[in-house]
Amino acid sequence: MFDGDDKNYKTDPRLTRSLSIGEFIQAFSIYKKCNVLCLPHRRSELDIYERDIVDMASRYPVSTPIRINILSKHLIDHPDPNFKQYLFDGLSSGFHTGLMTLPSSSIICKNLKSALLNPSCVSELLQSEVPKGYLLGPFDSIPYTNFRINPIGLAEHKNSKKKRLIVDLSAPHENADHPSLNELIDKEEFSLQYVTIDDAIHLIKNLGSKSWLNKTDITDAFKIMPLKQDLWPFHGIQWDNKFFFFQKMEKFRKLAPKADQIPTPCLAPAHLMMV
Predict the structure, then answer these.
(1) Cα-Cα-Cα-Cα dihedral sign, residues 231, 54, 167, 84
(2) What is the structure's pLDDT at 261?
(3) What burial class does residue 157 get, using C-beta atoms within 10 Å of its C-beta: 0-12 exposed, 13-18 middle, 19+ buried?
(4) Mean pLDDT computed over every residue of the chain
(5) Longest CA–CA separation in the chain, Å
(6) Domain range summary for the chain, segments of one domain joined by +
(7) At what angle do helices 21-38 and 43-57 cross, to 10 degrees?
């Protein structure tokens, strides 16, 4: 029993730390694994607890490293109020990926050959995604009743040869019973438009000769954009008999959501004109 006058007592700083939902699930997964090793009959009970934790997480705001209050001050003079509202709503409540309807049935797709040929690389990349809060998991069983497990693979950068994880959201292919997520996206409203050199030249000319030109690179830019929580079950992946679910956007989709266009209207005109 702790005596308040005990001078040898030291508080544990870990007890005052606030965990993200991803960190808590990761910690609970370790706790569950240790329990099941000694008490196998508790597996079903702990699986239910885990599903309840995931369910409760969906009732709270999504997370993003972007400081929305500070961003709103920088964009106070942005000429498009509808865009600003869309941006702030997405950052605080999650972005919609443009699915016209949610998948009505579950399916688990097989991983791509590129992942199967490089298992150690895939494991290393996944282990780096979870602590960053991009992925929920790992789960021993799927915590959702209706879900989609998408194929993962590896892609290699042309120059650096650095490998990165990709998610095939066009799978399953040619399956009438299970249309892919990309097939369910509204192609009219949610098409991808990249900024061109001509766009940059036009902007520079409009701003004039005394303007400053800044360039910045955001690490994992897509993945700091939170997904709406009701979409998490359909952005699942499987590896090494474990299941993971993206709570942030995957970069590698055939048709990108509106949020992919945010850097164009948000950062370029608003910030360059204020410098």
Answers:
(1) positive
(2) 47
(3) exposed
(4) 80
(5) 73
(6) 14-274
(7) 170
Q: Which of 227, 107, 224 is nearest to 168 (CA)?
A: 107
Report the C-alpha gap between 46 and 242 in whole angstroms.
Answer: 16
Dihedral angle sign, alpha carbons of residues 252, 130, 58, 94: negative
Compute the distance between CA of residue 153 and CA of residue 155 in angstroms, rounded to an integer.
7
Nearest one of 210, 195, 207 to 273, comparing CA atoms:
207
The residue type found at 89 is: D
H or E segment to which residue 188 belongs: none
DSSP three-state, residue 232: helix
pTM for this one? Answer: 0.71
CB atoms within 10 A of CB 244: 22
- Pairwise pLDDT comparison (50 vs 135), residue with the higher score: 135
For the stretch 110-153, pLDDT in tens is 999 999 999 999 999 999 888 888 888 888 889 898 999 999 99
Pick from 230, 250, 234, 227: nearest CA to 108: 234
Which of 215-230 are b and which e, b meaning 16 or more Cβ less than 10 Å from the residue's Cβ? eeeeeeebbbbbbbbe
Least Cα distance to 93 among 227, 190, 224 occurs for 227
Q: How many whole angstroms separate alpha carbon 188 and alpha carbon 186?
A: 6
